[in-house]
Structure formats: structure tokens, C-alpha cells
Design goal:
CATH superfamily of the largest domain: MoaB/Mog-like domain
Mean pLDDT: 94
Strand order of the largest sheet: 8-5-7-6-10-9
Helix content: 10-25%
CATH topology of the largest domain: Molybdenum Cofactor Biosythetic Enzyme, Chain A
Number of strands: 27
Oligomer: single chain
CATH architecture of the largest domain: 3-Layer(aba) Sandwich
Low-confidence stretches: none
Number of helices: 8
């Protein structure tokens, strides 16, 4: 198949995500919600702050009183222990950060701007009371939505949910991702490989990408290049009720690349196979019952790049993330001259640095062979080049995908 007939990457991604809808919801404890995706808008159960509170340590005063001389110190307001009475004219209350502002007070005199003598407070020369008050409801108000469906719950979102007084959160169910590696040449880490065997590594990288995207990963293990063995592995994925079956290797056109026929014999509906992408041309996408099928290439870098481009967005889409397919690239400057690109979108491993002007510079690694993991581990980004793009001189704008 010529490169100009291959399915473009963006079209392939649209087709992968086109059949993805959010899985079921569940309620989880706040402490276990990190990395999960909010299933419904979250409404505040309280107002924050619940009353006007001081933003600084100092003295709660009536600003107009300070203009006429010292005011009498009559009490104290601390967080959780307010003064408890209105502040009358000519009076002041010692106040601490987060403490309720007494009724009648309209400003805070910072403690470093105050002079104290004989139980009276006055502003130092040149100083004056400022507002320094966090008004009731400044952060959020009871009954208002402050977190929205599709939000990925990180540290900031968890803090906000806790402040809104939610002990549990409604989240999308984690997609179950089954990993099936194939190849007579593969042995697991820790084993003693034969003279021509290699250590299976793709499942660890792809599994990590899947977990980071929010999935629950089931590693089915390594299966021989044999139709019966591969069909048994596919059966295990179905028994595990996998939402996504990810196959690793065996997706190309060789006589020993048997995954496509094994999936077909199990009833897979093939959507597409082969895309205009480097690395990662032999990508299988289809459905097997309710399960999504992604057949990734066997070369490690190709498998990892395809997982970033297709698997992670699919996992996010199955959790209801409205930005699942959003562009992940950002602007940078090319750090080396690059020749014209041909008919496939190219994802080149690259090191990142800043130039003297503070610009982000991406320099491709010397070797781009899709089997080389050392180059990948030493890279901080993928420099993305479009099909048919002309020569790219050093210093020219480019797009990168951070790793």
C-alpha cells in the first residue's frame, strides 16, 4: 500500500474515538479519587469562606476611626473563635489570618503597621488600614457547581472537592485494558533468553501509559505465534470483560504476524489497518463485541508512540473526558537541520533545551530506529513533522509532544 493511500493519523484517531462513550459511574472515597474522572458536575455543599475573614494578621478596625487618633483594643478574633460582638466606634480587635471579621469592622490594620501603647492602637506614620478581608463566598457559594463532569481529579481538584465538603465523589468507571503480547522471540524480564530471543518490554510501557490515562490494566502475558494460542489469549481478555484489548506485536504482514487473522476468527470487526505514521504504520483498530481492539506494532518505540497517540485518548474518552482527542503538541524551535518529510506523520525522538533567548529547542536524537529504547529514554519530547513537509532548518518553528 502506497503512503498516499494510508489513513492519516487525525482521521484514524477520530475513528478510534468515534465509537467511544463513557462507561458506567461509581462513587469513590475522596482519598481514592486521585487521577479519576469526574462523572457529574460537583455542587458545593457550603459557602467558602462561610463569613468575612481576615486575609492577614493585624487589627480589625473601622477605617474612619484611625484618622482621628488611637482606638481602644477590646478583644481578639482567631480562626474558629471569633470576637462574637459588633465592633463599635473607637474600638479595635486583634485578629489573625482566617479569623472572622467582627460586624462593623471594614478594614484590617496590618500588625507591622500598628503602634500599641496603653491598650490603644494607632497606625504608624504613613500607614493606613487596608481592606485585607476575604469576603463571604469569595471562593465558592453553596449550591454552585465548581467542578465539572470530565475533569481529571488532580491535587487542586481534590482540595476543592474536600473544601466543598464532599467525602465521596462520582467518577467514571476505570476502563479495563487487557494487554496481550505475542512473539516466539519474547521472554519475560528475569528469564534467561535463548540466543535469538529478547526480553518483552512493551507491556510495561504501554501498561504505564494506560494506567496514567486512568485505566485498570490486566497483563495477559506472552503468547506464541500460533493461531490457537492467540485465540486463547483473546478469550482470556473476553473473560476478563476487557473494555479495550491491546495486542503487542504480530500486527504486520509477515507469515508469523497472526494477530489479525486470530482476531478475525474470534469475530472482530476491523475498522482500519495501517496508517500514515512513523513509527507505527501497522496499527489495527476494530471492535470485538463491546470491546475496542487496538493492535500495536511490536517495535518498542512504535508501540509506545501509538499508545500515546491512540490508546491514552481512547481511555480518556471512555471516562467522559471532553478533551480526550485534543492536540497534545506545543510550539518549539528546531535544533538541527532536517530534510523534507515524506508521506507519513513523523514522531521523532528529541532532546529539549532552552536557547539564549529562552526559547524551547527540540533536537532530534541521532538515530530514529523504532527499536532503540536508549534514544527514547534520553528524549524529553517527540518532534512532530507533517506528511509532505519541506526541509526544516535549524531555528525554524516546529511542534513537539512532551514525553
Amino acid at each position: 500500500m502506497s503512503e498516499n493511500k494510508l489513513l492519516p493519523v487525525d482521521d484514524a484517531l477520530a475513528r478510534v474515538l468515534g465509537g467511544a462513550s463513557r462507561l458506567g459511574d461509581e462513587e469513590v472515597a475522596l482519598a481514592h479519587a486521585r487521577g479519576r474522572t469526574l462523572a457529574r458536575d460537583l455542587v458545593a455543599k457550603r459557602t467558602q469562606p462561610p463569613v468575612d475573614v481576615s486575609a492577614m494578621d493585624g487589627y480589625a478596625v473601622r477605617a474612619a476611626d484611625l484618622a482621628s487618633g488611637p482606638v481602644k483594643l477590646v478583644g481578639e478574633s482567631a480562626a474558629g473563635h471569633g470576637y462574637g460582638a459588633p465592633l463599635n466606634a473607637g474600638k479595635a480587635v486583634r485578629i489573625f489570618t482566617g479569623a472572622p471579621v467582627p460586624a462593623g469592622a471594614d478594614a484590617i490594620l496590618l500588625q507591622e503597621d500598628a503602634e500599641i501603647a496603653d491598650g490603644a492602637i494607632r497606625a504608624k506614620p504613613g500607614a493606613r488600614a487596608g481592606d485585607h478581608i476575604r469576603r463571604q463566598g469569595l471562593d465558592f457559594r453553596e449550591g454552585a457547581a465548581a467542578l465539572f463532569a470530565g475533569a481529571r481529579l488532580g491535587f487542586a481538584e481534590l482540595a476543592l472537592a474536600a473544601a466543598m465538603n464532599h467525602a465521596t465523589l462520582p467518577v467514571a468507571r476505570r476502563p479495563r485494558v487487557a494487554l496481550l503480547a505475542s512473539g516466539d522471540e519474547l521472554v519475560p524480564p528475569g528469564a534467561e533468553p535463548g540466543p535469538t530471543q529478547i526480553i518483552a518490554c512493551n507491556s510495561f510501557a504501554v501498561g504505564a501509559i494506560a494506567e496514567e490515562a486512568g485505566a485498570s490494566v490486566i497483563d495477559l502475558g506472552i503468547f506464541r505465534d500460533d493461531l490457537a494460542a492467540l485465540e486463547r489469549g483473546i478469550g482470556l481478555a473476553r473473560e476478563a470483560k476487557a473494555d479495550i484489548l491491546v495486542t503487542l506485536g504480530g500486527a504486520s504482514v509477515g507469515d508469523r504476524d497472526l494477530l489479525k487473522p486470530a482476531l478475525a476468527r474470534q469475530g472482530m470487526t476491523l475498522d482500519f489497518w495501517k496508517i500514515a505514521m512513523r513509527p507505527g504504520k501497522p496499527l489495527i483498530s476494530g471492535r470485538l463485541g463491546d470491546a475496542h481492539i487496538l493492535g500495536l506494532p511490536g517495535n518498542p518505540v512504535a508501540s509506545i508512540v501509538c499508545a500515546l497517540v491512540f490508546l491514552a485518548p481512547l481511555i480518556r474518552a471512555l471516562q467522559g473526558d471532553p478533551r480526550a482527542g485534543a492536540d497534545q503538541t506545543e510550539a518549539a524551535i528546531a535544533g538541527a537541520d532536517l530534510p523534507a518529510n515524506k508521506g507519513r506523520r513523523d514522531y521523532m525522538r528529541a532532546a529539549l533545551a532552552e536557547d539564549a533567548r529562552g526559547r524551547l529547542v527540540a533536537t532530534p536524537t541521532p538515530m530514529q530506529d523504532s527499536s532503540l529504547l536508549t534514544e527514547l529514554a534520553q528524549s524529553q519530547a517527540l518532534l512532530v513533522r507533517e506528511p509532505g513537509e519541506g526541509p526544516l532548518p535549524a531555528g525554524a518553528p516546529c511542534r513537539i509532544w512532551r514525553l
